[in-house]
Design goal:
Helix content is 25%, strand content 29%. It has 9 helices and 19 strands. Bound molecules: pyridoxal-5'-phosphate and 2-OXO-4-methylpentanoic acid.
C-alpha cells in the first residue's frame, strides 16, 4: 500500500458551538460522549491504495446498506489519549504502539494495511485542529478513537476492496463513575472472550459485541466490569471486557497473565506498567493464574491487590470479585493498595509530562 502524496484537505467547522459552551462541556465531559468538532477520513481503494485524506467537520457517514462492515463486521479500532501538560502543550503516549497494533489487527481481519506514519499523521492532525477540546489535566484527557471499516457494497463473504480509516475524538473524564475508589468485577464462567486461533489479540469490534451479554450479567449483579477465563478449562484468568488485569502478591510480586496463548489483547498500558514496575524494583511475573487460586489467595491474604489497566481505565483497583458461586474481597475492598497507587501515579506522571520519560514514550503534538 502507498502513503498518499497529497496533504490532508482541511474543511473547518464553521457553525460549531461557542467557546463558552465547549468549555462547559470540556470541564465535565463524562466518557465517550463529548465529541470534538472534526474527524479525519482517509479512503482505501484496491489498486489505488490510501487516498483522499481529509479533515472535515464531524458528521454522519454515508454507507451503502450492503457495506461489508454492516454484515460481516470487518471493523477494527484503537483507543489512545492526548494529555494536556502543565505548560499547556499536548502529549501523546506511545502512539506508534497503537499504530503498530492497528496494522496487526488489520492483518488478522484481512483489511488494508495502513502505514504507521499515516496513522500517526492523522491522529496528530486531529488533535491539533481540535486542541481546545483537550481537558485540563485535573479534569481528564482527550480520548482518541481511530478505526477502519469495510465500505465495499458486496454480500459475498470475502475481504472488502474498499475501506475508510476514520479518527474521531472526545473529551473524557474517568471511565468508571466514581461512587467508590474500587470497582466490582463479575467472573464470567460461561461465555468466553477468545480462544486459541480466534480474534482475541485483534482489537476488532466483534470481540466487544460478544462481551456484552457477560457485561450485562455482571451489571445485574452490581459489577462494572467482567473478567473472562480461558476457553479450554474456564479456569485461567485472561482479561476483562475492555482492560487487562494485574495482581500484587504478598511478597510484592506483580503478576499478570502471559500473552503467549494468543487470546489476550496486547495492552500498551499493560506493557508500560510492567516496565515501570521493573524500574521501581518490583519482581514481574507473566504467568497463568487460576481463578480458584485467586479466591484462596484472597482468603489467606497472599493476594494483596488486584487492578484493571488500559487506556480508558488507566489503573483501576478492584475491590470485589463476584460470580455465580459467591463473592470475594481484595484488601479492604474500598481503597487502592499502595503498589496500585504507586504504579498509577508513576504512569500518569509520565503521561502528563510531570516526570522524566526515560523510555521516550511521550510525543508532543
Ligand atoms: N484489553 C481489552 C479487551 C481492551 O479493550 C483494552 C483497551 O484498549 C485493553 C486490554 C488495554 O489496552 P491498552 O492498554 O492498549 O489500552
Ligand atoms: C480503551 O481503553 O481504549 C478501550 O478500547 C476500552 C474500552 C472499554 C473503552
Amino acid at each position: 500500500t502507498t502513503a498518499p502524496n497529497t496533504l490532508f484537505k482541511i474543511t473547518r467547522k464553521t457553525d460549531g458551538i461557542s467557546a463558552a459552551e465547549r468549555e462547559r462541556i470540556v470541564a465535565n465531559p463524562g466518557f465517550g460522549r463529548a465529541f470534538t468538532d472534526h474527524m479525519v477520513v482517509i479512503t482505501y481503494t484496491e489498486g489505488r491504495g490510501w487516498h483522499s485524506p481529509e479533515i472535515m467537520p464531524r458528521q454522519p457517514l454515508v454507507l451503502d446498506p450492503a457495506a461489508s462492515v454492516l454484515h460481516y463486521a470487518q471493523e477494527i479500532f484503537e483507543g489512545m489519549k492526548a494529555y494536556r501538560a502543565a505548560d499547556g502543550g499536548i502529549l501523546l503516549f506511545r502512539p506508534e504502539a497503537n499504530a503498530r497494533r492497528f496494522r496487526k489487527s488489520a492483518e488478522r481481519m484481512a483489511m488494508a494495511d495502513l502505514p504507521e506514519d499515516l496513522f500517526l499523521e492523522a491522529v496528530s492532525q486531529l488533535v491539533s485542529i481540535d486542541r481546545d477540546w483537550v481537558p485540563a489535566p485535573e479534569v481528564g484527557t482527550l480520548y482518541i478513537r481511530p478505526f477502519m471499516i469495510a465500505t465495499e457494497a458486496a454480500l459475498g463473504v470475502k475481504p472488502a476492496s474498499e475501506f475508510k480509516f476514520i479518527v474521531i475524538a472526545c473529551a473524557a473524564g474517568e471511565y468508571f463513575s466514581k461512587e467508590s475508589a474500587t470497582v466490582s468485577v463479575w467472573v464470567e464462567e460461561n461465555a468466553v472472550r477468545a480462544s486459541h486461533g480466534g480474534t482475541g489479540t485483534a482489537k476488532c469490534g466483534g470481540n466487544y459485541a460478544a462481551s456484552l451479554t457477560a457485561q450485562m450479567e455482571g451489571k445485574a449483579h452490581g459489577c462494572q466490569q467482567v473478567l473472562f477465563l480461558d476457553a479450554q478449562e474456564r479456569r485461567w484468568l485472561e482479561e476483562m471486557g475492555g482492560m487487562n488485569v494485574m495482581m500484587v502478591m504478598e511478597d510484592g510480586t506483580l503478576l499478570t497473565p502471559p500473552l503467549d496463548g494468543g487470546t489476550i489483547l496486547h495492552g500498551i498500558t499493560r506493557d508500560s506498567l510492567l516496565t515501570l514496575a521493573r524500574d521501581q524494583g518490583l519482581t514481574v511475573r507473566e504467568e497463568r493464574y487460576a481463578i480458584d487460586q485467586l479466591y484462596s489467595d484472597a482468603a489467606s491474604g497472599k493476594l494483596k491487590e488486584v487492578f484493571a489497566c488500559g487506556t480508558a481505565a488507566v489503573v483501576t483497583p478492584i475491590g470485589t470479585f463476584k460470580s455465580a458461586h459467591g463473592e470475594c474481597t481484595i484488601g479492604d475492598g474500598q481503597t487502592a493498595g499502595p503498589i496500585t497507587s504507586r504504579l498509577r501515579q508513576g504512569l500518569c506522571d509520565i503521561q502528563f509530562g510531570r516526570a522524566p520519560d526515560p523510555h521516550e514514550w511521550v510525543k508532543r503534538v
